[in-house]
Amino acid sequence: QQTAEQVSGIVLDETGEALIGVTVLAKNEQSDFTTGTATDVEGKFSFSNLPTEGTYSFTFSYIGYEAQTIRNQRVSSNAKLSLSIELEAGNNQLNEVVVVGYGTQKKINVTGAVSAIEADALESRPVTNLSSGLQGLMAGVTVTNPSGQPGNNGGTIRIRGIGTLGDASPLVVIDGIPGGTLDILNPQDIESISVLKDAASSSIYGVRGANGVILVTTKKGRSTTPSISYSNYFGLQTPTALPQFLGSPEYMQLLNESQVNVGRNPTYTDADIEIARNGSDPNYFANTDWINEIYKPSAPQQNHNFSVNGGGENFSYYLSYGLLKEGGLITGDNYKSNRNNLRVRLNTTLIDRLQVDVNLGYIDRNYSGSSEGIGGAGGPIYAAHQILPLVPVRFTTGGWGYIGGQRNPVAVTTDGGTDDFASQEFTGNLSATLNLFKGFSLRGQYGLIRSNSKRTIFSKTINYYSPIDNSLIYQTNVPNKIDTRDYTNLYQTFIGIAQYERLFNEIHDFKVMLGASQEENIGDNFVATRTNLATQQVGHLNLGTENQLNSGSASQNALQSLFGRVNYGFNNRYLAEVNFRYDGSTRFAPDVRWNLFTSASLGWAFSEESFFSGLKSFIDFGKLRISYGSQGNDRVGDFAYLDVLGPVGTMPIGNANTIGYRYTSVPNSLLTWESVIKQNVGLDLTLLNGRLGVTADYFINETKDILLVVPLPDVLGTNSPPQNAGKVENKGWELAFSWNEQRGDFTYGANFNISDVRNRVTDYGGVPPVLSDRIRKVGEPIDAFFGLAADRIAQVADFTYDAENDEYIPNFPHIVSDPVAPGDLIYKDLNGDGEITLDDDRTVIGNAIPRYTFGFRGNAAWKGFDVSFFLQGVGKADGYLQGASRHALINEGSLPQKIHLDRWTAENTDASYPRLTYQQSHNQRLSTYWLEDASYLRLKNIQLGYTLPAALTQRVRINKLRIFASADNLLTASDFFYAYDPETPVSSGGFYPQVKTFVMGLNLNFQ
Amino acid sequence: CKDEFLDRVPLDQITDETFWQTEEQLELAVNAIYANVKAKNTVDMENMGDNTLWPSTTDYQLIGSGNFGNDLGTLNTEWRTQYAGIRQCNAFLENYEKATVITPGRKEQLAAEVRVIRALMYSYLTSFWGDVPFITTTLNIDEVYGPRDPREQIIDFLMQDLDLAAENLPAEIPSGDNLGRMNKGAALALKARIALYNKRYAVAEAAAKAVMDLGIYQLYSNGDPGTSYHELFTYAGKLASGRNRETIIARMHLEDVSMHNLSREIQVPDQNARWNPTKSLVDSYLMIDGLPIDRSPLYVENTYEDVFTNRDPRMRQTILPPNTPWGGRFDGNPENKNPAIFTAPKFRSDRRGSVTLTGYYFTKYVELSTVGRVSRDANDIHLLRYAEVLLTYAEARLEQGTLTQADIDMSINLLRERVGMVPMVLTKLVANGMDVREEIRRERRVELALEGQRYFDILRWEQGELLAQDVKGMKKSWALIGADVASIRADEEGYIIAFSGRTFTPSRNYLWPVPLTQLERNPNLGQNPGW
Question: Which domain holds residue A140?
Answer without folding.
Answer: 93-218
